[in-house]
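Pair request: fold both.
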Amino acid sequence: MKKFLFFLAFILVTSVTYAQTIINPKVGVNASRLSTDPKVGEVSGRIGYQIGLDARIGDRVFFQPGLFWFRQSTQLRTASQIDDTPTEELEDNLNRQGLQLLTQVGFNIVDGDGFKLRVNAGPAFSVITTVDENDFDLNKSDFKGANLTGNAGLGLDIFFLTLDYNYEFGFSDIFDNNTFSDTNFSDSPKLSRSTFNVGVKFEF
C-alpha cells in the first residue's frame, strides 16, 4: 500500500512538474442570496468581496485549485406569525466571512498566446469563520460551519490580465440550527452566489 501511494504521489508530482502552471492572484466582488424567501418577508442579495488565488495546471485541459477569503452578505426581512398575523418584523444584513477551497477542471475554448477563452466547473468547500452582529441574533453556530457547493464559470486571459465570472449554487440548508430555518422558511434556504474577479497571471 505504501509503495502504491508513493508511486501515485510520484506520478502526480511528475505530471505537475512537466505541465504548464499558471498562478493567478485575484480580487473581486460577489452578490449572494438565499434560494427561498421567508414565510413572511423577503430576502435580497448584497454586494460582498473576495481575495485569493488559484492555479491552472495543464495545457488546454487543466486542473484549477484555488483558495479565497470571502465576505458575503444577504439582506433579510422576516417576521414571526401569531394566528396568521405577522408580528415582530425584523430587517438586517447577514454578513459572513470565511475561506473557500475550489477544485475545478477547465478547458480553453480559445487557446491563443495573448488571448484565452475558458470554461471551468467543479465543487467548492467553504468554511464560515465569523458572522457579524445582527438583529436576528444569529451567530457562527447558527450557520453550517462547512458547506459543499457547485461552481461553474467563464474566464478570459488578455495577455497577463484575467477576468472571471463564476456562479455558485448550494446543495444544502445554510443554517445549522434548524429552529430559525423551520420557523421562518417553508423550504430549506440554500445559498447561491455570483462572483466577478480580476487578476494577473504568472506562467511557469
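--- second member of the pair ---
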Amino acid sequence: MYRLLVLMLLFGSTGLYASDLMRESYIAAQLKGSHIDGEWVELQTPEIGFIALQTPATPAQRRGAVILLHDVGGQPDEAGVIHALRTQLPASGWHLLSLQMPVAPVDAVPEEYRGVAAEAAPRVEAALAHLRQSGLLNVVLVGHGLGAAMVIDYMAGQPAAEIQAVVMVGVRLVPPDAAAQTLMYEQLATIDIPLLDIYGSRDLPEVMATATRRYSAGKKGADPLFRQDEVLGADHQFRGMTQVLVSYIAKWIGRVAPGTEVVDK
C-alpha cells in the first residue's frame, strides 16, 4: 500500500489512473479498521498496490480458488452478493480471494468507468500470481455487475491457464451504450471454458435488457459448457436469496472445475 500512497502524493488521485486512488485508500483504511473475518493481503500490479481479502477454505481439503470482482464503486466485502460468496463458498472447499477493483470518484459520470474497467486486468494477474505462489492452480473467476463485465474483458484477452471456469452474476456495463454492448457480445463469443451467466428476475434494467443477446453470444463460445439462469424473485444483490445463489454457484463450479484437491497445510 506504501507505493499506492506515494503515487497519490506525486500525481493526485486521478492523475495517471482512471481509478480514484485516494478513494481506494480511504476504503482500505475503513475496512482494515473494522472487524471482518478473513486475512487482508496487499497485492501488486506493475504500477500500483491494492488490497484483497483472503478467506481460506474451511474443510481439510480444498478444491481450488475463487477470485471475486465486485460491482461499481464496491469493495472486497461488499454487502450482498460479494459478502455472501466470500463467506460461504469456503465451506465448499474453495479458497476465496476478493479484490479491490478500480473505483471512479464518487461524483464520476458513467463514461469515466470505461477507464476504470480498463485497469482491471493487471489486478486479476496479480491475484493469479498470488494464488500460484500458494499452489492454487485451479481457479474460478467470478464477477458481479461491472465486475462481471471486467471478467469478460479479461477472458477475451490472454487468460491464464489456471482459470477453469467463469461466473457472471448480474453482468452490466457502465455506461450501457450500444458500442460497449456489441463489444461485450463479441468477447463473450470467444470464451471457450465453462461459463455461467446468472441473474435475478428483478435485476437491473440493463442486466435484463441484454440477457437474450448474452445467451446467444455465450452459446457461440462455451457451448455446451455455457449456462444462463434467471433466479425468480432475485434482485441485483439477491437480497434475501443469497443462500440460493451461493448454493447454485457452489454446485456448478464443483461440477465443471473440480480440480485436484490438495490437503491444506
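Observation on the second member. The mean pLDDT is 87.
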